[in-house]
Amino acid sequence: MRRRQFIVLVGGAALWSALAQAQQPTTPIVGFMSGRSPDDSSHLVAAFHRGLGETGFVEGKNLKVEYRWALGQYDRLPAFAAELVKRPVTILVAVGGDVSAVAAKKATSTIPIVFGMGGDPIKAELVDSLGRPGGNATGYTLLTNELEPKRLGLLRDLLPNAGVIAVMLNPKFTPAAGQLVALEKAAQATSQRLSIFKVSNDTELNASLASIQKDRVSALLVAADPYLDTRRRQLVTFAAENKLPAIYQFREYAVDGGLMSYGPSITDSYRQAGNYVGQILKGTKPADLPVLQPVKFELVINLKTAKALGLAIPAGLISFADEVIE
């Protein structure tokens, strides 16, 4: 074979190899950012992957996922969003609270966003409407931030003669101001005294728990907040050790030994988020996917915990419960 023919053949082979590589589909990259921690979210990530699987996507097979966890430190979220957008990711998942969703939306108006939050995405300027989001973002709202008065009412159903009820909320969580107003209004209507503890980090949390222990309050309401969710086991253990009736937002608290929880299924919402990511990766526009809302709020009561606290749960409250843990 002549040298010129050999060069042509080799050059042709290289060209065809390059063309074949260029024609191969690029593996999509999902940026997953959360205000929570991986330790308290493993079951949620598993649910997210179940949703992806419903649309044919499997991490490590035809999809890559890059995770960023704020660990309850919300000021880290804007940097996470900017980093993932610069990467760039194919789609951005912003879960673990309203702050995460807002940070993602501020970082990009072009990359598709699937958000998860507990408040109103219209007020947060994430979407134009729930049915027709418009723009590059859609997702779900749990509406759990708006349930604080209901949780307070459930505590009063349990303890109608309660003296002071301690309320723990995070002032750095954007919806906290609204949560506080709603709780104070509900308390005023029933002449219920509240003691407010503002907690946004571990130092404040430990100081608040020490004060609650010293003040001998009648009960505890832990407001909806991703940072407080990252300290779920610590809060449940504290309530148990101090014989303190408490109510929380998610079923996970009651499963871990908390007395009561009232709210939506966060696990199912993560599954739906994974499904939405798959639909968008297959070509559906975020603007055409309505924002999902819970169809049911569940009251879960742990009777084993009630017994340990020496509490008799009223029959009416038990009949109202969606799940009773014995």
Question: What does this entry look like structurally?
Answer:
It is built from 13 helices and twelve strands. The longest helix has 21 residues. The radius of gyration is 24 Å and the shape is elongated. The protein folds into two domains: 139 residues, Rossmann fold, CATH 3.40.50; 147 residues, Rossmann fold (3-Layer(aba) Sandwich). The strands form two sheets. The protein has a seven-stranded mixed sheet with strand order 7-6-8-9-10-11-12. A five-stranded parallel sheet has the order 2-1-3-4-5, sandwiched between helices.
Q: Specify the CATH homologous superfamily of the largest domain.
A: Response regulator
How many domains, in number, for the residues? 2
Quickly name the level 1 CATH class of the largest domain.
Alpha Beta
- N-to-C order of helices and strands: HEHEHEHEEHEHEHEHHEHEHEHHE
Share of β-strand residues: 15-25%
Helix fraction? 40-55%
Structural class: alpha/beta
Biggest sheet, strands in spatial order? 7-6-8-9-10-11-12
Assign the CATH architecture of the largest domain.
3-Layer(aba) Sandwich
Number of H/I helices: 13
The whole-number mean of residue pLDDT values reads 92
Which tags fit this structure?
44% helix, Rossmann fold, elongated, five-stranded parallel beta sheet, alpha/beta
How is the topology of this model organized?
Elements: H1 3-23, E1 29-34, H2 42-54, E2 64-69, H3 77-86, E3 91-95, H4 98-107, E4 113-117, E5 137-141, H5 148-158, E6 164-169, H6 176-189, E7 193-198, H7 202-215, E8 219-222, H8 226-230, H9 232-241, E9 246-248, H10 251-255, E10 260-263, H11 266-281, E11 298-302, H12 303-309, H13 315-320, E12 323-325
Parallel strand pairs: 1-2, 1-3, 3-4, 4-5, 6-7, 6-8, 8-9, 9-10, 11-12
Antiparallel strand pairs: 10-11
Helix pairs in contact: 2-11, 3-4, 5-6
